[in-house]
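Here is one chain, start to finish.
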Amino acid sequence: MASGYRLTGAGVAVVLMAATLSPVACRDGTSERGGRARRSEAGRGEYADAIAPRHLEARWLVAPDVSGEPPLAAPLALAVDEYIGRLYLLETQPPELRVYDLESGVFLDALGRAGDGPGEYRRPIALAVETGGGLAAVLSMSGRVTFWRTDGGLAGTVRIGPGLATDIVAARADSFYVKSDVFPPADVAEFRVVAVDTALERPRFRDLNVPGTEEPGRPYRNHSYAVAATPAGDLLLAPPGPEYTILRVGAGGDVLQQIGRPEVTPLARSEEEIEAIRERVRRAFAALGRAAPQGTRVPRYRSHVARLAAAPDASIWALTQRGDSSAAIIDWFDADGVYSGSVVVDLRVSELAVSSTDIYLLARSRFDLPGVAVARRPGR
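Its structure:
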């Protein structure tokens, strides 16, 4: 799945991420092939819109229904394994990993519970699944990763460090990348490889030289960006900054490719947005019993990409932040990173996962209730 920061809620990187990656998109603000720039009605910035995007019809797979059994309260992340027909959903109230049938949406099981023991979670923040009947991994803010087998049995736990754990994505061969934000003086994001019984001490990749993560006048770097991994194990990063950029990072830590859409113009934050993010940072640190770092500044620009997902065919899918919150705009790129088009779904979306044939969306209904919707991929 994963892909990407999974909308977490405490710590500087986590809160900046939650603010940066809010699901904001609209139908009147996309382009399939680029074109002239036009300002969005919501005042969110400019974007290319010469050609209308494809409109996808979505249906509810897990309905946004308070009478559901069990009802969804505050789901945070989703992942799919089409090979065994499972949908995984990370619920936070109460904290548990829920398992559903991928075709019918029928609830099958709930794995884990609140706590600090084996098979328990304290502030779970991210989910990743190794497709093909592999492991499901839940990351907690403390840096502990809990692994589950497909039969619902606990496979093991590992703890990573240092830094604030913020994301996890499946790599390959029963391993995962865990992203941690290490605050000054190091001030980097580190990606470590973890498996059921091991966590490598040496980071596989550090974002020290990643373009776009530094801005003039900022004392700290911004590591709050979307993350995913391809079936081959390459990392995909969407760093913040004015340019629409997705980086492909190889297993050796080298940037192999810069994928982008130069025709899409920057998404500048308003002063109100910046102050709201500062307040969330202060509250997040207060909840942890700590004072926010002095001099923390908010980037002027929102990342174009809110979430990333890589499909089994290695195509890349980006939930964007163009427009307002009335609908989701999703860009997709082929396995070589070539822009292939954009689609619109009339839902407020916070997460996505992509199979060989479908797009799965963690979304909210018009009554602001959470659910999971599914739409057919273009051309499928």
